[in-house]
Here is the input.
Amino acid sequence: MYRATVSLLLLLLSTTSHVAFSVTDGLLPNGDFEHGPKPGQMKGPVVTAKNAIPNWEISGYVEYIKSGQKQGDMLLVVPDGAFAVRLGNQASIKQKINVTKNSFYSITFNVARTCAQEEKLNVSVSPNSEPNDWGILPMQTMYSSKGWDSYAWGFQADASEVEITIHHPGVEEDPACGPLIDSVALKFLSNPKRTRGNLLKNGNFEEGPYMFPNTDWGVLIPPNIEDDHSPLPGWMIESLKAVKYVDFDHFSVPKGERAIELMAGKESALAQIVKTIPGKTYELTFNVGDANNSCEGSMAIEAYAGKDKIEVPYQSKGTGGSSVPDSSSMPCQHAQGLCS
Ligand SMILES: *[C@@H]1O[C@H](CO)[C@@H](O)[C@H](O)[C@H]1NC(C)=O
Ligand SMILES: *[C@@H]1O[C@H](CO)[C@@H](O)[C@H](O)[C@H]1NC(C)=O
Ligand SMILES: *[C@@H]1O[C@H](CO)[C@@H](O)[C@H](O)[C@H]1NC(C)=O
Here is the structure.
């Protein structure tokens, strides 16, 4: 058996089938922070008691933000409901949840930056059988024009009760200069199987992180995401920039309900490892399109299977076209029968 890495670069891909939502999918208890501290548990906007926000435990400098509140000249607007939290330097929020041990889950939450700085968030789950295993999600680029982005991160539950922590590792001069967080949701991830007809797992991207029905900016899957932290089962994000998970309700998706937008040019890539048999010929087929979000121009996607590579041009009008390019059926066979 030889291994070929199939890596698809640039733009939008998708195919068929539908995966039902599991019952646990949606906001965590008080995941939208609509229930807040009592007046005696705040000093100005700062939360002073660690259990003041119902269902959550906080540590460090956490502000409880009301939509419409001003910060300097900036009006803070909250995407879901009327409240959100802000994590200052080294602050964190955490919540315990009951899950199914050994299953995979994905966390999705909304983030806004309030100061023009490079910000990061550190997401972790405990207990965790692997030491020093957390996700640093970079937020130096804001992708949506609404001021908020959704981020996703995946994990495997090592116990039936786990604690999810979102921590702001920043050390800015102004302690209040941390990201705003709203709408923390969880989704059970099924483990899509390879089929006889398709050797790629989750080739249609139908299984993926929770998407908020009321937001129209998709969900960012952060860069450098591998195996058990992928909120997109089967796929690794092998790039320096995030990719965007988009839904049929708010974007043009060539087939099915979900697709991936490779929005950061050459810096976005998805990869999956597929076992192949020497001497056999394989065909890689995919749809290329645009998400109907006004991104116009000449684009191209590059697909690699082992050492083979094709480049597929796509002329985007930004209005939601798509095609299955002739050249996207890529035979993958070498003289010695290796595709790696
Ligand atoms: C998880 O389930 C256990 C047993 O049913 C219960 O005692 C505990 O409070 C639950 N934890 C949470 C966070 O709901
Ligand atoms: C990330 O968060 C975990 C859990 O709170 C913590 O142990 C770890 O030190 C943090 N990592 C960084 C780089 O801040
Ligand atoms: C693109 O978006 C516009 C406006 O949102 C909509 O009317 C149109 O049907 C969409 N096109 C496709 C192909 O999805």
